[in-house]
């Protein structure tokens, strides 16, 4: 059997690193390439043979079901479980287990709501089945693994240890990291303690390893991006539009730009680098927008220059203003002739007067 029919999608995080994008919207619902990011994950799971998905929700849980409903529009059966108290990754998995119908030895796919990946899900299920593992992990290789959990494996791919966020050169024994997608044997999920916070990375996996369980790693170094920061989120959306990150849910052909219906773009405006212009948004004459996301009903006035930035829903960017690596919250107003760079964030509803912020060229 090379398909997992059921999946758990962990979407409970608060997305604090993504503020102000996540003040009104949970991270998985922030638009990427024109649709909520979660849509891409659901569509990829469906394409890999998954039929039933349980969403483990917590923060702003009430927004998921009105949007996705029972999942039938995506060819899925979606159910929702809301945590009353934060339970961590392992606790969230255990909390939704009663919704699963798989038999004890059947594979259940588990993945995180903030990872954009080109993972071959069917290959991970096949690896799991062939190796007879209790749990299989998607591993990817990164140049600097210090911010991640390392997962060394032996010659057969069997996991030998879990090393959380190493710092010294001696601790960095591999460049393989936990990439946030797993296949669990259904019966293993029931061994996670119920009703309390559990970290799957710090408690469940090391505990299983210590008990002699078989944990298998599959290295798949296709596209992988943690969308935890605004810069990463903007890049991920652009990569979806450009076709670098695969998704069956991009609402249009891949290319340099994605302009949603009802958006208005001046004929001489330039949109490049995987830029997305949301429904009802307006791009003024002579504006240049590169590698950026302009959310619904936002306005970019004439001759503004927006690069690698995100402009929130209903926000307004004044004429000749330059944004580079900036995040503008929903409903914010940035006046004309400003220059905002290098990760600056403007809060939802804030107002910046004309020519109030400038970076001199010698900085």
UniProtKB/TrEMBL annotation:
<feature type="domain" description="Nucleotidyl transferase">
    <location>
        <begin position="7"/>
        <end position="239"/>
    </location>
</feature>
<dbReference type="InterPro" id="IPR056729">
    <property type="entry name" value="GMPPB_C"/>
</dbReference>
<feature type="domain" description="Mannose-1-phosphate guanyltransferase C-terminal">
    <location>
        <begin position="255"/>
        <end position="336"/>
    </location>
</feature>
<dbReference type="InterPro" id="IPR005835">
    <property type="entry name" value="NTP_transferase_dom"/>
</dbReference>
<dbReference type="InterPro" id="IPR029044">
    <property type="entry name" value="Nucleotide-diphossugar_trans"/>
</dbReference>
<dbReference type="InterPro" id="IPR050486">
    <property type="entry name" value="Mannose-1P_guanyltransferase"/>
</dbReference>
<dbReference type="Pfam" id="PF00483">
    <property type="entry name" value="NTP_transferase"/>
</dbReference>
<protein>
    <submittedName>
        <fullName>NDP-sugar synthase</fullName>
    </submittedName>
</protein>
<dbReference type="Pfam" id="PF25087">
    <property type="entry name" value="GMPPB_C"/>
</dbReference>
<comment type="similarity">
    <text>Belongs to the transferase hexapeptide repeat family.</text>
</comment>
């Amino acid at each position: 059997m090379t398909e997992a029919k059921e999946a758990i999608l962990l979407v409970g995080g608060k997305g604090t690193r993504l503020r102000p994008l996540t003040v009104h919207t949970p991270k998985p619902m922030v638009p990427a390439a024109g649709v909520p990011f979660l849509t891409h994950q659901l569509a990829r799971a469906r394409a890999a043979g998954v039929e039933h998905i349980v969403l483990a929700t917590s923060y702003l849980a009430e927004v998921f079901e009105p949007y996705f409903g029972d999942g039938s529009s995506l060819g899925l059966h979606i159910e929702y479980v809301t945590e009353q108290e934060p339970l961590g990754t392992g606790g969230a998995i255990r909390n939704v287990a009663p919704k699963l119908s798989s038999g004890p030895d059947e594979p259940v796919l588990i993945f995180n709501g903030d990872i954009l990946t080109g993972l071959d899900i069917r290959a991970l299920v096949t690896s799991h089945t062939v190796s007879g593992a209790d749990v299989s992990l998607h591993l990817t290789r990164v140049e600097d693994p210090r911010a991640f959990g390392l997962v060394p494996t032996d010659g057969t791919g069997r996991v030998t240890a879990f090393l959380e966020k190493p710092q010294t050169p001696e601790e960095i024994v591999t460049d393989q990291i936990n990439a946030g997608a797993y296949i669990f044997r259904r019966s293993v999920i029931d061994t996670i303690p119920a009703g309390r916070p559990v970290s799957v990375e710090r408690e469940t996996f090391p505990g299983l390893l210590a008990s002699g369980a078989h944990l298998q790693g599959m290295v798949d170094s296709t596209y992988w991006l943690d969308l935890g920061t605004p810069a990463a989120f903007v890049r991920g959306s652009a990569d979806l539009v450009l076709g670098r990150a695969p998704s069956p849910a991009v609402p249009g052909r891949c290319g340099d730009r994605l302009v949603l219906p009802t958006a208005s773009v001046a004929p001489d405006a330039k949109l490049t680098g995987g830029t997305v212009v949301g429904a009802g948004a307006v791009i003024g004459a002579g504006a240049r927008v590169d590698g950026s996301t302009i959310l619904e009903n936002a306005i970019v006035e004439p001759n503004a220059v927006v690069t690698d930035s995100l402009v929130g829903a209903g926000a307004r960017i004044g004429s000749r203003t330059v944004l580079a690596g900036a995040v503008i919250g929903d409903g914010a107003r940035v006046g004309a002739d400003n220059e905002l760079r290098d990760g600056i964030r403007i809060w939802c509803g804030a107002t910046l007067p004309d020519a109030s912020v400038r970076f001199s060229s010698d900085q």
